[in-house]
Amino acid sequence: MSKLDEILEYNKAFIENREYEKYITSKNPKKKLVILSCMDTRLTELLPKAMNLKNGDAKIIKNAGATVMQPFGSISRSIIVAIYEFLADEVIVVGHYGCGMCNLDTDNLLNKIENRGISKEVINTISNSGINLNKWLHGFDSVEESIKNSVEVIKNHPLIPEGVVVHGIAISPETGKIDVIVNGYEK
Ligand SMILES: [Zn+2]
């Protein structure tokens, strides 16, 4: 059975058994929180459990590395929408130890891209159009530095209003233990 068929079969039973009922909530985050975290598979259930987040508590944004790469990219847009449209007033950047984006070997990644059939020509065309692929694909060298950097980008964003607090924490993908990297309440 294909993955999609498996999902559809499961979904049919999920709906029939009304298993969704215990998840019904509102789209405004009850805890007025925005979480930016990594797509790491170990965090899917662990992160909300370790932070006591239930359905409806927070807007959770995910990408590779929990990084805000540019002030006018999709992550910043999501945070701004969460603040203005869904009334969030605190943002927590949640990086994690052992992140796949830490010390990512971008040359190796570009080799993999070529080995999967993307031609050198395509890569050169992208590079010649002013996009530094190594820089774009590169994650970070230190999770703490990356968290601090993302917190700064959010805090200093020209569209983030006064009074929004931005924290940065690092979580263990094994135990869920949290270390505070930036306490947004401290001036
Ligand atoms: Zn990660």
Automatic annotation (TrEMBL):
Catalytic activity: hydrogencarbonate + H(+) = CO2 + H2O
Coiled coil regions, renumbered to chain: none
InterPro entries associated with the record: Carbonic_anhydrase (IPR001765), Carbonic_anhydrase_sf (IPR036874)
EC number: 4.2.1.1
Alphabetical UniProt keywords: Metal-binding, Zinc
Highest taxon listed in the record's lineage: Bacteria
TM regions (residue ranges): none
Signal sequence region: none
Requisite cofactors: Zn(2+)
Pfam families reported for this sequence: Pro_CA
Protein family (similarity comment): Belongs to the beta-class carbonic anhydrase family.
Protein name as catalogued: carbonic anhydrase
